[in-house]
Specification:
Layout (H helix, E strand, L loop, with lengths): L27 H25 L2 H17 L11 H20 L21 H16 L2 H12 L4 H8 L3 H22 L1
């Protein structure tokens, strides 16, 4: 019996949500955490999968990140940023811990595996653009691919990017701009 279905990218039940423990009154911190989990789980998984290049390990690290966040939820300080950026920081640290544990150089893939099938009506031009962007992303350094992953997989603002990466907001904006310019040039050179 196989633990994961070879045809699917994730194990069954990975996206299932937990329910609050039965009690007379629901803990508001639990409700906030559950809401954060529901809104972020797929983006966290995509981001961690991008960093690790291993779907099974990405599932484990995603779960570990949410576990760490749950244990530390009462230490979260809203004055220091948004919960989503805080959570991505925890996920990033957990993924980097895993990479260090493996004692290998972190290399990012260009894009997490696309679990949705392409539309049959997807025309050749769109497919060509997608391939061009993926090829250009593969040529970017790991740090720049990480910036693209955080910005577009997670939909983070520059302020959130800065908090996750431990840099100033201005620096995050500059790095993102330069990375996107490199990506445009690479795409235009290929086209």
């Amino acid at each position: 019996m196989s633990v994961t279905n070879g045809a699917s990218v994730r194990s069954d039940g990975v996206s299932e949500t937990l329910t609050a423990p039965a009690s007379g009154t629901r803990d508001s911190s639990w409700e906030r955490f559950e809401s954060l989990y529901r809104s972020s789980r797929d983006d966290i998984y995509a981001y961690v999968s991008t960093l690790l290049r291993d779907p099974a390990a990405a599932e484990d690290i995603t779960a570990l990140a949410f576990e760490r966040a749950y244990r530390r939820r009462r230490t979260f300080d809203r004055r220091r940023g948004e919960e989503r950026a805080w959570l991505f920081g925890i996920a990033r640290n957990a993924a980097l811990d895993e990479l260090r544990r493996r004692r290998r150089v972190a290399s990012l893939v260009t894009d997490p595996e696309d679990v949705t099938e392409q539309d049959a009506g997807d025309d050749a031009e769109v497919a060509l653009r997608r391939t061009t962007v993926q090829t250009a992303l593969a040529k970017l350094p790991a740090r720049e691919r990480e910036i693209v992953a955080l910005k577009f997989h997670a939909g983070m603002s520059n302020a959130e990017l800065a908090r996750v990466l431990g840099i100033s907001e201005s620096n995050a904006g500059t790095l993102l701009y330069r990375t996107m310019e490199k990506l445009r040039k690479a795409c235009n050179a290929t086209a």
